[in-house]
Write a structure and sequence with these properties.
Blueprint lengths: L4 E7 L6 H9 L6 E7 L6 H11 L3 E5 L6 H9 L6 E4 L5 E2 L3 H12 L3 E4 L2 E3 L15 E2 L1 H6 L9 E3 H4 L11 H10 L5 E4 L4 E4 L9 H15 L4 H18 L3
Parallel strand pairs: 1-2, 1-4, 2-3, 6-10, 7-11
Antiparallel strand pairs: 4-9, 5-11, 6-9, 8-10
Helix pairs in contact: 8-9
Length: 250
């Protein structure tokens, strides 16, 4: 497989990290990619940095949102422009290891599963590995993701020439989970690569770690996006809380 890979990166005031993120893409062993960077009205010099990269690398594209709209709308603007046979996501403060794309495509080829994801290392803001690696399950189904979202944006990799292009639900939080579930309604499972393929930077006061703050969004997701019953929503909410606590222990 040597198809084009479309990489989607939303940015908002990411000047501190965006250079490392773009470098990690440029250093991939697989080079047939396009990087769609969507800036959500940054007030720092994120746009200037991206434009500097664009001068030397025509594979990098910048889309600028007319107003600050949040990660879901930013990602969806890029999804609408995807030209690749594959689609993947990389937030503006995360980093891929050099073989990430190559290994993801190879796994799709070997397994025949058009949706793969990977384990990753977890660092603090200074890229110090003070947290344990997050090792993903080898397979996850629709119901598995309802219990805990073990597919992180930075390693999700989809063969869209097989699965088609779908948009994230237009909600404030849990947009990525909503997209994974759309695909998992159509295929038996997504396949997990056990060897870490990326670095997820955990920032102080990250909302993804603040489970209490996310409770209302998670409940709304079950009820209003997936349209689960109250009983089913309560069951999955308990599962999500317990597994979320375990996920973010050091």
């Amino acid at each position: 497989m040597n198809g084009l890979v479309s990489i989607i990166t939303p940015t908002y005031n990411s000047a501190k990290y965006i250079t490392e993120t773009i470098h990690s893409v440029q250093q991939q062993t697989y080079q047939n990619w396009e990087m769609l960077i969507v800036d959500d009205c940054s007030t720092d010099n994120t746009v200037d940095l991206v434009q500097q990269f664009m001068e030397d690398d025509h594979r990098i594209h910048l889309i600028r949102m007319p107003k600050n709209s949040g990660a879901s709308k930013a990602r969806n603007e890029a999804i609408k422009l995807v030209q690749g046979d594959f689609m993947t996501f990389l937030d503006a403060d995360d980093i891929w290891f050099p073989d990430f794309i190559q290994n993801s495509i190879q796994t799709i080829k070997q397994t025949g599963i058009p949706f793969v994801f990977s384990s990753y290392r977890r660092s603090n803001e200074k890229l110090e590995f003070v947290y344990s690696d997050f090792i993903v399950p080898q397979k996850v189904t629709y119901t598995d993701i309802l219990k805990t979202n073990s597919i992180s944006c930075l390693t999700a990799f989809l063969e869209v020439k097989t699965l088609g292009v779908k948009l994230m639900p237009d909600i404030l939080k849990r947009q990525d989970m909503g997209l994974w579930l759309k695909y998992l309604k159509e295929i038996p499972y997504a396949y997990g690569i056990l060897e870490p393929q990326a670095i997820y930077r955990i920032r102080e006061n990250s909302l993804s770690r603040n489970k209490k703050a996310l409770l209302k969004y998670q409940w709304q997701f079950y009820r209003e996006v997936e349209h689960l019953s109250v009983v089913a929503s309560a069951y999955y909410m308990v599962q999500w809380m317990v597994r979320g606590f375990l996920k973010y222990r050091n």
